[in-house]
Amino acid sequence: MQMNDMVLISVDDHITEPADLFDRHLTGEAFTTAPKFRTKSDGSNYWDYQGMKIPSVALNAVVGRPKEEYGMEPTSLEQLRPGVYDVHARIGDMDANGIAASLNFGSLPTLDGLFFCSAPDKTHALKHLQAYNDWHIDEWCNAYPGRFIPCGIIPAWDINATVAEIKRLKVKGFHSISFNENPTKRGLPSIHNAYWEPMWRAISDNDMTINLHIGGGNPAVHASDESPIEAWITTMPMSVAVGAADWLNLSALQRYPNMRIALSESGIGWIPYFLERADYTHYQHSAWTHSDTYFGGLKPSEVFHRHFTSCFIDDYYGCRNLDLVGEDNACFEVDYPHSDAPWPDAPEILWRSVKSLPDTLIDKVTHLNAMRLYQFPIFDHFKREEITVSALREKARVAGVETAVRSSGGAAPLTEGETRRAVTSGDIGAMFKAHAEAA
Fold it and tell me: What is the pLDDT of residues 146-189, one digit of tens each?
């Protein structure tokens, strides 16, 4: 297999929602009380909802900009590539990047999908959450059948409403939901609490995959506010290990052996040691921790390989060790349009990691594992030769999709004698705080 022959499904991408998100899915009071897209006097955008103001955050949508301009800008839709918020333009950007299909997490409902849990009026929040799910599948995913994997959000503050929404999502064609790896961060019970039992049952009965996106629950910690930001970014994927260990010890996995957990934007290179450590911990400590309650006679690594999938952008080490990661437990991602996204060069970046693998393994990590995980029969919609990297890029070329880097003016020039210092974790924290307060 050559790079251009690959079929690529990305299981982690993102949407910055358009201003008309709710226009065709709500009427009357439900529409009047829905989140409203606002523009400030300086041109920046934010969502206004039940006293909450949710700003547009730049690092969520910097594709197509010079890397030296990454930061807290842009803050309005007009500054973004249309593919960030317009589904038709998104298809063009996917084609240019050789991406056959994509699972998209929302921005307004947050990475864990539990934004509406924070709304004071839960009656309205439930209607608006359902309208969001309807928009996601009806207007985004179904605009191009076979190109998007639907991912729903749930009203986790009400377990009965959660079960009802999971059933409704299944009927509409969803096979996955977003969830928080640590719902206590949302003021909800921990995953080990009996509160969630009806949800585990509904997930299992309706054959859903649970997506746990990095940053949705447990924070990616940094050493100090003076630490260079790259130190923080480097360890972000590995921070997933905290939540993964918690979920690995979830007793519900023994009661629902078909439950599927996806660790989104997680990387895979850290997993071999994680599983080695989990197995040793179980061997060394289970006599006093009574952990067979959680593992049912299996090794933790066996539980992981039965229930968990992870994804990667560029992970040469992980791909060389798929026998330890699990060849059925790894998927590809792009992370469009975030700052980590290798757009429009994803195939070239990926090929560095997989070119030494047998064709059978390349097919697994590029699309077959994703198809199974999300029950996504892409070849019911397209012949393989129609959605290879080369075929899609040719389609983009014919359509005239523009991929040139476009500057927004660049950083302010240095004054005489001035030098630039490394951006720190504290700088980014302060930027986010100021950005939120400005909204």
Answer: 999 999 999 999 999 999 999 999 999 999 999 999 999 999 99
pTM over 0.90: yes
The rounded distance, in Å, linking the Cα atoms of 349 and 223 is 29
Cβ count near 328 (within 10 Å): 16
* Span 367-380, pLDDT tens digits: 999 999 999 999 99
The answer to whether 173 and 137 are in contact (CB under 8 A) is yes
The owner of tokens 């005239």 is: 400
Tell me how far apart the alpha carbons of residues 127 and 385 are, in angstroms, rounded to a whole number. 42
98: left (phi over 0), alpha (psi -120 to 50) or beta: left
Q: Alpha-carbon distance 95 to 99, whole Å?
A: 6
Q: How confident is the model at residue 413 (pLDDT cuts 50, 70, 90)?
A: low
Residue 82 exposed, middle or buried by CB count within 10 Å (0-12, 13-18, 19+): middle
Beta strand pairing call for 209-213 and 260-264:
parallel
Q: Read off the amino acid at residue 201.
A: R
Tokens of 168: 């409704």
Residue type, 34: A
Is 270 in contact with 276 (CB distance < 8 Å)? no
Please name which of 141, 34, 18, 155 lies closest in space to residue 77, comparing C-alpha atoms.
Answer: 18
Half-sphere exposure for 150 (CA within 13 Å, toward CB): 27
- Sign of the four-CA dihedral 356, 233, 110, 200: positive
Q: Residue 126: name the closest of 174, 152, 162 by CA.
A: 162
- Which domains does the chain possess? 3-438 (3.20.20.140)
Output the average pLDDT for the chain. Answer: 92
Among candidate residues 274, 355, 273, the one with its CA nearest the CA of residue 314? 355
